[in-house]
Amino acid sequence: MSTNPGNPTTATSPAATTTSFAQPAGPTVTGAPGFPRLRPRRRRVSAAVRRLMAETHLQRSELILPVFVREGIDAPIDIAAMPGQQQHTIDSLCRLVEEAVKAGIGGVNVFGIPEHLDATGSQADAPDGITQRALRALAPRFGDAIVLQADLCLDEYTDHGHCGVLTADGAVDNDATLERYVAIAQSQAEAGAQMVCPSGMMDGQVAAIRDGLDAAGFTDVLIMAYSAKYASAFFGPFREAVRSQLRGDRRAYQMDPANQREGLLEAKLDIEEGADVVLVKPAGSYLDVLAKVVEASPVPVWAYQVSGEYAMVEAAAANGWVDRQRIIDETLTGIKRAGAEAILTYWAIEVAQRLDRQ
Ligand code: PBG
Fold first, then answer.
1. 263 close to 255: Cβ distance less than 8 angstroms
2. Number of C-alpha atoms within 13 angstroms, CB side, residue 355?
3. Angle, CA of 92, 95 and 97, to the nearest 5°
4. CA-proximal residue: ligand 1, atom 14 (nearest)
5. What residue owns the CA closest to ligand 1's atom 1?
6. How far apart are CA 347 and CA 97, in angstroms?
7. Is 87 in the pocket of ligand 1 (CB under 6 A)?
8. How far is the CA of 111 from the centre of ligand 1 (A)?
9. Disulfide: which of 69, 111, 294, 329 matches 134 by Cβ 3.0-4.6 Å?
10. Contact present, 145 and 105 (Cβ < 8 Å)
11. Which residue, by CA, sits nearest to atom 10 of ligand 1?
12. Facing residues of 342 across strands?
């Protein structure tokens, strides 16, 4: 067999065989194909160039503010573990949401904190419960300008602090909890919620809630499912925010932080059950899960930058250890870059106001 003298040239053409990118190969130095013709730093030379080259842009409409409304108080109360955040009266909540509308953010996510707690969380679906009264005050004033979301869970309403009702031996009873969720969804929709957000990680919750909403005529009320929600220490400050009574933990229903594939399964099930939006939570430590869900999901994927993510930055910034504004922007940009189409963040208004001026 004779060798063709032309062959070695084609066989050793590195640009064609080692990369699928189309940049021209220039003079090379060892280990740097194309150098010095190819200088990625050209795209970073000035603020104007960098601005034009940015792949990721935060938008005001993609930010959602979680808010707390508490029964039985006559003035807002600061949440110590979340500096800058408060438990609101219905009046102060209305002022906050007015500010949110002015800032141009996409939604507010309401958490109610009732005075009366019991084993079944009866205030969660009470027609005059704090969440229902807050929604009723907000819906006519702001419902056209911003999406009113309601957290749909039992932990803020139960005396044991779990996200569902309990069996005699103290385990969370999945199927009995679903009946409670349906009643809560219907009463939140009745009060003016445009989107209900089940966050309890019960199996089958999205299907049960969809059927319940449809049966009651709320076919246009959306479901945002906290699909991949992890049993996370990042929820720590939130427990103060809602005066949680929880002893123990939620590891028998929220996900193990070790698991990525399972997050994809949870999102898939929720989509099959009719979720309009799926969400990954917390955000910053779960960007791999977020990116994978984004890749696979036919519906929008959101992320929740939770209380602990907020509190850590505020605490470090208060000590002068980090540049607060840059860290906030970097965390949100990272979440957006991983693919989140909207982000729940306690900085929503502040960031939106800043974006407005850019
Ligand atoms: C459950 C719920 C929690 C959060 C949102 N919904 C707490 C939990 O699951 O323990 C946490 C939000 C945050 O930490 O900012 N209703």
1. yes
2. 21
3. 110
4. 235
5. 199
6. 14
7. no
8. 9
9. 69
10. no
11. 235
12. 302
C-beta neighbour count of 176 within 10 angstroms: 14
Q: Name every residue whose Cβ is closer than 8 Å to that of residue 2 and which is 6 or more positions away in sequence.
A: none
Phi-psi region of 161 (alpha: psi -120 to 50; beta: other; left: phi over 0): left
Are 120 and 79 a contacting pair, CB within 8 Å? no
Owner of token pair 């991983």: 338
What phi and psi values does residue 173 have, to the nearest 5 degrees? -90, 100
Show the tokens assigned to 262.
Answer: 């399972």
Top mutation candidate among 199, 202, 226, 255 for ligand 1, by most atoms within 8 Å of CB: 199
Q: Quick check: CB of 109 below 6 Å from ligand 1?
A: no
Is 229 tagged catalytic?
A: yes
319: helix, strand or coil: coil
pTM, 2 dp: 0.91
Q: Tens-digit pLDDT profile for the chain (358 aa)?
A: 444 444 444 444 444 445 566 665 555 556 677 777 889 999 999 999 999 999 999 999 999 999 999 999 999 999 999 999 999 999 999 999 999 999 999 999 999 999 999 999 999 999 999 999 999 999 999 999 999 999 999 999 999 999 999 999 999 999 999 999 999 999 999 999 999 999 999 999 999 999 999 999 999 999 999 999 999 999 999 998 998 888 889 999 999 999 999 999 999 999 999 999 999 999 999 999 999 999 999 999 999 999 999 999 999 999 999 999 999 999 999 999 999 999 999 999 999 999 976 6
At 187, which amino acid appears? Answer: S
Do 350 and 327 form a contact (C-beta atoms < 8 A)?
A: no
